[in-house]
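The protein record quoted for completeness.
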Amino acid sequence: MKKPPILYLALWACLWHIPASAQSEAEWPSYFQLSGHLQAGFPMEGFAGKQNKDGVGFGGQMLFQLKRGMPLFAGLDAGMLYLDQEKLKFTAIEDGQSVDYRRVTHNNIFMAHGLLRFKPFTNGLAQPYADGLAGVKKLYTRTRLIDESQNEDNIVESDTDLSDSAFSYGLGAGVQVYLSEFPTILGDLRVTYLPGENATYYTRSQEAPDPIEDPLDVFEEVSSPTALLLIQLGVTLQLSSRDFEKRAIPDDGD
């Protein structure tokens, strides 16, 4: 059966956002979005078999519209996840004085991705979108020695015990909801699935020594793929070229 021409027109308009009104392309605003969010991260597949701790953290995106009137945005996405930590307190005698120390070991993931977003234009309060991402995950373990004898914690030394990176890619979907009109603030709920190549990292050992002499003693070095499921909740500031335009006010005296 021959498809009606109106179907082809609708598909073309959806992909290329051909204007249906008399508004010219030069009059369309261009958009910029700056987002921040809190996130929870859940190891998946082979990563879940090695890393038994879920993570919490934060992140953000910066997006530019590729072309006026086109529902495509490109930019950067970055975030941190804190997976696990172990600490050990002890007292040392220095120059005849007792000094309280705390040694803390953290397992973290830093993520940085290029981001391509398809966000169709809607007139409703809710605006759905879909993301494609490609970038890198950096898994690292850091230990800090902290002097607790002062009123404020004094970091005596900080060392990276292990660091490895893996290529990362994935898909995401979310929805933005208008919270205010000017400035344009949107609530943002997003779910992202990020498979990743193998990396070597520390994870909590099933047979940790007791007692421990160093926080790193409770971790063991392993290697696996690095798939993550991220659930993110945040806010987005949306700016348009119209926000910066100085519109001329007609002079009634002319």
Summary: Residues 188 and 217 are 40 Å apart (CA to CA). The chain has one domain: 28-241.
